[in-house]
Amino acid sequence: MKRYFTDIYESVSSILGGMGITLMHLIKARNDNVTLQYPEEKWPRPERNIGFDHNSYNVIRSRLHVDMDDCIGCLKCERACPVDCIKIVTEKAPVRGEDLKEIKHKGVTSNGTRKALVVTRFDIDMSECCYCNLCTYPCPEECIFMTGGPNAKKHPIDYEFSEPDRSDLIYRFAKKGAKEGLAEMNAKQEAEA
Amino acid sequence: MGVVHGQEMVLNIGPQHPATHGVLRLQVKTDGEVISEITPYLGYLHRCFEKHCENVTYEQVIPFTDRCDYLASMTMNFGYVVAVEKLMDIKVNDRVQHIRVIMAELQRIASHLLATGVFGLDLGAFTPFLHMLRDRERIIDLFEMTCGARLLYNYMWVGGLSHDLPKGFVEATLNFLDYFEPKIDEFENLLGHNKIFVERTADIGIMPAEVAINFGVTGPNLRASGIKWDLRKDDPYSIYDKFDFDIPVGQGIKGTIGDSWDRFYVRLQEIRESVKIVRQAIDQLPKDGDVHQSMPKKIRPPKGSIYSRTESPRGDLGYYIESDGSDTPSRLKMRSPAFTALGVLDEIAGGWLMSDVLAILGSLDIVLGEIDR
Amino acid sequence: MSEDIQLLIDDVVAKALAGDMDPINNIEDRVTRSKAKAALVKAKRFQPQIEVDSKSVQAAEKSDTESKQTIEQIVIASLSKNFSDFLDGEQNNDWVQIKAENWFDIAKYLKTNEDLYFDSLQCNTGVDLEQGMLESRYNLHSMKHLHAIEIRIKVSIEKPDIPSVESLWRVADWFERETYDMFGINFTGHRDLRRILLPEDWDGWPLRKNYEEQETYHGIVVPKVKEGWE
Amino acid sequence: MTVDYIFDFLTGLLGGFLGSDYLLLASMLIPCLAIFGFITVYALIVIYAELKVSSFIQDKVGPMGQGVGLHAGKWGLLQPVADALKLLLKEDIIPSSADRPLFILAPFMIFIGAFISFVAIPFGESIIVADLNIGLFYILGVGSIAVLSLILAGWASNNKWSLYGGMRSAAQIVSYEIPAGLSLIVVIMLAGTLNLQDIIKYQEGGIFNWIIFDNPFVPIAFVVYFISALAEVNRTPFDLPESESELVAGFATEYSGMRYAFFFLSEYANMFVVSAVAAAGFLGGWQSPFAGFMSTPAWGVFWMISKTGFLIFVMIWLRWTLPRLRVDQLMNVCWKVFLPLALINIFGVAIWTVVFNS
Known about the structure:
Chain C is an alpha/beta fold and about 230 residues long. Chain C contains 7 helices and 8 strands. Chain C has 2 domains: about 5-45; about 65-210, Beta Polymerase, domain 2. Chain D contains 12 helices and no strands. In chain D, helix 2 (about 20-55) crosses helix 3 (about 80-90) and helix 4 (about 100-115) runs antiparallel to helix 5 (about 135-145). Chains in contact: A-B, A-C, A-D, B-C, B-D. The interface between A and B is large, with 36 and 44 residues.
């Protein structure tokens, strides 16, 4: 019998206690919420009271980008990729370290390395990318990196890269017409020779 | 007393069901609401993790370990990294160790928050679940700040970490802990001591200690059965022996030792202990030290094998690595804690009502990504 | 990358190597900052690393182990009192290699003996040793004495039969099903030996080294080459 | 009564053009349409309230629309409209193995049950569709139609989850009607009538004349009635028939689109009915809490709606606080706690009335 009444007492007190907690949340609803009104408020999120600012982010994994002017075609990123979403094809440059104006190929990287290869194909399938960041570390020229982030002036926030067609998620970074241009040049050279 | 037996009905709970925490199919035999037999069918989320690992190099395995237990990626990384480092005999410096511990314990808090919250959701309490998600969000913000990813981090590398801590991380973490500690009490009052919740979980799904050991159940589920067994204390890896923390065990406050309420409560207590560890680790964090210092240029472990265990939020996470001296593992087996926890379901949940079975399933805290691998 | 940025990076890397991380963190542009950090990492790799004096540590450990018997030796000594001809091939300090025949009895002894009392089976895994041999490995652990051991059982690929220990450690139920699923090791005496992770009608044993994927599964062609990629 | 008013009004207006049969029909249809309109508008409001209250309790912001374009309006005010439109425009699926006629019948029956209860609800001193002399009894009676339709829905869906939901709801609603009815007997004993208007008139003269403050036993009766009413309308912690984490969606698993909307609508309509009965029976109905102050008929409607609204808010509040009970516990609570309490209340009130009020 005593158990019966303690049960009733516990039920009533614990339920009222719980209702008190929820009522406090109801009254102070805006205090703790972390909701982002997505299309209007975009990440980087407006200030919350967690106490850090966006400049202190280390890195943001938003999308892979390649600076083709710096790429020397060493295939290190292709080998580092655990899901094989990077595909690179290179061809030998006619002269090492020289600009090829016809196909907008730059001969020397910003680190001063002279390129021996022309990258004719540099495809990244972002639908397969697992955002592990492993490809960005072995790159000797630091030309492949994750874009986005609050401070990226060069590349604005672009995490909304959804596409209606899956094949549109294959990003082709190589300069357009590089392959044909190179073949044409080689043919011309052969003809001259 | 005469009992009327109806016809038995076979019912499939899942693969698409709100309470199965993923794609799990439980084939149950029911007599009215009473469930007499449970047969779990796994494999709906099988992604050939172990076969993959035989085809990629050691560093490329780490993103795959993330995806096994997607709710506790940091500790999955941690376990793998510890195993490979043991195999290669690499010693990492103190700063790396401290950062790893901070990350692993924050991850444990996040994982337990979700586990306890979802447990409430299984019993129909929606609000605690969203309160838990709210706080987990802040932890994920901390991770995002550190390594740029919110769920699948690929943060701990063999011999180091992918990034050093960002500027302001320590203050942000301390702020978070100050904010978070009162919330644990609030959560405990809102859900843990609610009479309906207690009635639904106390004395339900009792797992005696012998059964737990025999079925290989580990982690909070084993501790709820009253056994003080935690790899962080009993077989310390990394620098866990430096910290002062308790191991909460089930005491049967509301019912019997090893019931669903104990499993819930042990997790809640572990959140408190993890907060303690994070505070200590931040206090002792060495100011200098390069996180890439002892990273080998090429990971080629010597020929041999190792079985290494670490404490993930779900229990003993073991990695069995067989190396043939090349840069890809010749065999990598993950001993997943949720796999064994699910194995005990039929034993402890048979004969209960349908609502209880789903409550027990929720209390075991399984993650199908890790079970199916 | 322009020259100014390169100069800036060189500057901050030099400062960072001297121990001042602030200039690097104060760079406004994120790309530049991450590049600077990457450059810093590279610069540090070429710095001489601090050698850990591991020899003395190892020596200390060695003297410890020499004075005591390893758990493998204890187990073998204890087993040879009750079983004969159970060891298989050369023994190693890290594991105990036994024959498949009386594995169930040995397991029962290991589990029930008061001094050994391996009450917990931590892990069971199969390994394809190639050259026509499969191996099943058991990691046992004692919650009471806090010691652990690894047992290995070799079987030929033609007749991969190993006695099941599912009735001793119930956790072996699913472990053995998984090993069966992946390697095709037949655990005799298992009550419910079915595939666990793969579908019932799957062909082959995927984790064997000579496994080849099937061409079609239920009429669905298994894709091997990515469309529009090669 | 209202029908008579409308009939008189219409006769005065159109008496020369139409026969009295047509006018009678019209004067019956107009209140029906008014109730239907009221239920629809009320449902939109209460859905919005439920969304917002739950969001604030859970530290979310709920439906919001801050920008231009097809958003849910200012503060998400258009969200319930959008929800309703979505349900209306959705494809209506009837499973091939379902019992077709029963499957179609069930949502209409449950809505009829909720709808005809509104007939006897007093919104104001003269604003009531049919002032029945057995109003309270009538509402209790037609409220039980819900059980039948839930069983129909569960059975006709030919789905195991639905069947579970139907069986659970049958057991639950039938059981909880007993403590609910017994608690209302207290009201009937004190007011001495079954007519809801007369019950409200009995409570005239300020807050302390309300039945709930009549004697110490009545508040208990009120709590018992309120909790039993929660169970009758399948709200948490008694939402076992549709418990989404156990039975997927219970009896409504196979329903979609408009048919599902009917279940939804009648749940909210039933919430209003039970809250209105509680307000009329215990909290003075359309009487002002201050004697003679703000007690014109227009204010009467305000008081009635706000009292009912408060009880609905408490229901929403409870839903987002509590977990769900188990089937056997549900029955235990009903038969071992509420039924004895309700009986004790009847005796207590009877003795109290004889000793103190005679």
